[in-house]
Amino acid sequence: MEELLKKWECVIGLxxxxxxxxxxxxxxxxxxxxxxxxxxxxxxxxxxxxxxLPVLNKECLHQAIRTALALNSRVHLVSMxxxxxxxxxxxxxxxxxxxxxxxxxxxxxxxxxxxxxxxxIRINRLHIEQDAGKNIHDQSxxxxxxxxxxxxxxxxxxxxxxxxxxxxxxxxxxxxxRSILRYIGSCDGDMEKGSLRCDVNISVRPRGSTExxxxxxxxxxxxxxxxxxxxxxEFMRQVELIQAGGKVxxxxxxxxxxxxxxxxxxxxxxxxxxxxxxxxxxxxxxxTQDLVEQIGATLPELPNQKRxxxxxxLGLSAYDAQVIAEDAEIAEYFERAVDAFTQFVHPSxxxxxxxxxxxxxxxxxxxxxxxxxxxSELFALLGKNNVEINACKARPEAIAKLVYLIDVGTxxxxxxxxxxVILFDTGMDPEExxxxxxxxxxxxxxxxxxxxxxxxxxxxxxxxQYLAGKDxxxxxxxxxxxxxxxxxxxxxxxxxxxxxxLTSYNKS
Length: 508
Fold this sequence. Notes:
3 domains; ten-stranded mixed beta sheet; single chain; Arc Repressor Mutant, subunit A; 18% strand; 16 helices
């Protein structure tokens, strides 16, 4: 594989189908609820009964405009719906209502943060279309069934330029796009439910060449793992075919997740095969610039903006900033924790809004500590218990208080991990957990000195070795003192007092 990558380059463009967040379908009042019984959410319009006319769902239109603006695309004040003609059992009309000649938006880009710098992936267009139904072939040995629940559900098709070069690029792009969609609320991005599906257009060419090869389209890839494996297999297949003297044919392929391979589905159609023409039942969509600006004003701070603020203002590492900013719920959790910590440190200070770019009153070091507790200890518990962050009992204010208790020396970092486990299971106040379990850190100098004297007396030979230059024994003494105090002595105080005691031994 590595040798092939040195000689051959992969050229990839994506067509992302994102289900628009709305309670009803694109052209009917039918529900979009996931998991309904087969053919439960189907109206006469969805079933294409004679005389039934489509009516555009305004919410779907507004969501598409929001998405276009978030992707830096140009929103067109006039767009039109077309009929894409093809016959298939899951499409009762015999055509799909889509936008071909005049889409709602064109252009735009997404920036990916990579180790070697920022990479821009251009967007060709965003258009609105209706989804098709679902054919079911595994319920009977004799018959196939059709579920029309998804027919007419609103989709945004977001088409990239062929700027992607490998599976990793594609995964980063899909994650970045999904993150934006979730932030603005235009799509939940749930690939398991089919809310986000990906068509991968892939071709290969010799490295250094500027000509595009013959592309194949891999349809409806619905998981990150499948996307990666489909690209890797198809790259190898095309390269090996060309090297063997064969020719890549333009075709549509399916990815078999069981066999981890793509297989031919049909020859690839071109636009003229679908006989696109303006839908006579739908008027052109005409919007105003004022509406576009009003929708644009509702956009939240987007993932890349948050990431840059976390690095520049809060002092987070690029990794922590990326992990936290990628998910809107995690970002909100983190910012609520930082804001709550500020209130513990400065009770009389006015709360800064976490959704703005105003600097938090928590120091950058405090923000980094909070981020570390969330991305390491809390994430570990979330994963172990299969719980989403917004559903866990450990609220952000409690995480802030936990970090504050460490900061003021009430508990050590080690004890704090035990507190977090109980907090995660019960939602109790961290201070109550500390008091109930007798975990308050010992700060009394005389009692700690007494323990240090005891440890040093019991380990006199080790003291002599330390004084003779074996400095690594210092850690042994610290560990022994912490063991004697059951981990409740202040580690910093133990270190300071132990150094003083050993220095006095050395002088004597």
